[in-house]
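COURSE: Structural Biology Practicum
ASSIGNMENT: Worksheet 4, Part C
STUDENT ID: 0417
INSTRUCTIONS: Below are two proteins. For each, the amino acid sequence is given first, followed by its structure token string. Answer the questions at the end about the second protein only.

PROTEIN I
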Amino acid sequence: MKMPSMKPTLTLCIAGLLLAPLTGLHAAEAPKPGAKPNIVLLLADDLGYGELGCYGGKVATPHLDRLAQEGQRWTQFYANSCVCSPTRAALLTGRYPQRAGVNTALVQPIQDNEGLAPEEWTLAEALREAGYRTGLIGKWHLGSSAERHPLRQGFDEFTGCLSGMIDHTSHADKMGETDWWQGEERLMEPGYVTHLIERHAVDFIDRQKEQPFFLYLAFTTPHSPYTAPGARPVWKLGVGNGGDNAKEPDALEGRAALVRAMDDAVGKVMDAVSRKGVGKETLVIFLSDNGAPGRYKNNPVFIGDTGGLRGQKFDLYEGGIRVPAIFHWPGRIAPCVVADPAITMDIMPTLLKLAGSAVMPPRAFDGVDLFPALMQGQRLPQRDLFWSFKKLCAIRAGDAKLVRTDALGKNPEAKPKTELFDLSKDRAESLDLSAGSTAQVEDFARRLDRWQKDVESGPKTEGKRALTK
């Protein structure tokens, strides 16, 4: 049996558009000192690979589709985890989340020692050091204690929620408390959460002056509860809350409404950028933190859309970790579809390069700079990508991917299972090639073990240090 290829997948450029327009725009050059782009980083919550119109989804998403049409749409972009908190840690550190001890989603009540460690050097800190005004609007989910608060992790401003999920109408969290904050003060602000996120994001953009800005816009949508605009709250204040209404008949329509509301908010944010006259000076990135939630317990309906990929949130098949990714920067990034594998932790080193930052990180990045692919049409270097979640782990090398499971953790008595797939021919991971590829399976298993020991060994240098511009 032929083993899956370990050669990286090619970059697919629409009608040769990548190189031609960029030639006259000097896009092959790194940004000049002082020419720092504004950065708007949009992160969806639990959005599946196939839920946007530009990825074949059934829900109308005209604003995000336009960003994809005018920019780059990546088809093999991965989240660093199949759940949210680890991916968010990777996004803000440029490193595997296991190095920061963020291995799974933080569950309420969140303990003081849980979340992104204070000594981590974050993307917000790095960009602030490079001269940016930094703001987080939306979901944090990386710790609730004072020392792990967004304002202690590099953000000049914060409006949003600290926990992992809140009702979009009542703002109630699992504990029945209002989880909506401005800075470190609880904010009693009526309104649908997506609309509030949109309003505060537009206000942040409108208030910026000469200083370049970094806006991390972390939506709470389309994560459950599936409360559509105008609908009654699913979670209530003053009582303990549980469940996510996924079994209700209107769950699919409720989720679709969340996706539409998010897309509308993106449109309003882009309008604000346009009104300010900084469209050509603003890089916009859209990602999701993990795959679609899928089917749970006795719920017969698959919530979300993986675009035909196997699996869902909470597992390491493609449906749990492959996510939509759009990069938009008029005049700098030409329209293109990119099929090279990339991952959330690549964002931080990329943005520091694009911001012209000369500061050196106190700890080595695991992510790579995507600048050559984004701006120069070059291939990304060959590398292994790794994931682990509870008793699951996976490695991708080229087009070959190995997944080790224990029946998704549902059966403690189940024997571990190893599967090998060739993603160039089988992106649905339907054909297990492990039986005929013993040597490759053993090699991948060794690589996984080495990686696991490395990322769990702790940081290679001590904590964050003061940096100079």
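PROTEIN II
(use this one for the questions)
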Amino acid sequence: MIIGVVGKPSVGKSTFFKAATLAEVDIANYPFTTIKPNEGVGFVKTEDAAAFFDKVSNPREGYVIDKTRFVPVQMIDVAGLVPGAHKGEGMGNQFLDDLRQADVLIHVIDVSGSTNEKGESIETGSYDPSNDIKFLEEELDQWYFGILKKGWERFARQVQQEHLDIKKALAKQLSGLKVDLPMMEDTVKKLALNTEKPIEWTEEQLFSLTRELRKLTKPMIIACNKADVNNGKENFEKLQKDFPDHLLIPCSAESEIALKEAAKHELIDYVPGANDFTIKGELNDKQTSALEFIKTHVLNTFNSTGVQPVLDQAVFSLLKYITIFPGGVNKLEDKNGNVLPDCFLMPPNTTALDFAYKLHTDFGKNFIRAIDVKTKQTIGKEHLLKSGDVVEIISGK
């Protein structure tokens, strides 16, 4: 699973990316060994399953603060956007190549309205940030549409002449965009498209098809950055009314970086996503003033800096992923004495058998049963797992 961070220049996209990928502790291990310059590791927040057993886990990857476990996720900082990206304008081609990899998108916008459509600085409040939401969706829709439209008539005619299943053919054609057959079947049914004569589908129908598929394959959360700047709060509240179907979260990426840096230098105790922090070190006047501003204008106003909630909701609300811990009924530790060292992010509707295969192919092939370690109950291979489960796999051989 890959999270893509997108947005036009100068809205704080890189700042958000840094805020998301900056760990508070140096002991956090990264599972992704080939991190490119525009890639990084963020962390989603979940309850530490070890707390159920009155223990504290020792993560192989990620880290624990109190009873909260931070699980690593791969992130990419997608090239900056300009109007016409789908036509190759600016770094449009790079943007689209990066975007193909992403399973979910975080669209960072400047909610204070102090950057125009090209990312140029203007008088604060003189630009409507709703334009950015519409603009990005339009770019993505046009990109998807362009891919399908290219060679459409020849493709549709061949499908019709050879009596192929149009849904299967389209799913295969668009698999590079992470489109699968169930997705295609649901969308074709929703739009009531004539599967017998795809050659008669209109451009409007094709565009509707690709727009629906874009929403399914690139779900998006809007990080309303600079919410603490001037009229950012008012703009955010307006966007909530104007885009009721969108997931929008007010953010201050700069504040998150400041808090994480302060925590790293042991000046404060801070858990990412929290609405407060505790001072533990000696602060100079500048540090005191900065932290007071963050507490008053960010944490007290928005209940967090917004960065952690954006990551969490992207993974757990939009993608509906769950956290599963491998463990044993008789022993939670590995051979080195580490408690529940591993935690896996799994897609929705993951079964015990799916999890067995995730751990090792042989576990899946030779699956006998699984045990819910918290309840000590035996579960079968079709049993649907839920977030926070600790599971022991019993296999033959």
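ANSWER KEY EXCERPT:
Q1: The chain has a mean pLDDT of 90.
Q2: The CA atoms of residues 75 and 283 lie 33 Å apart.
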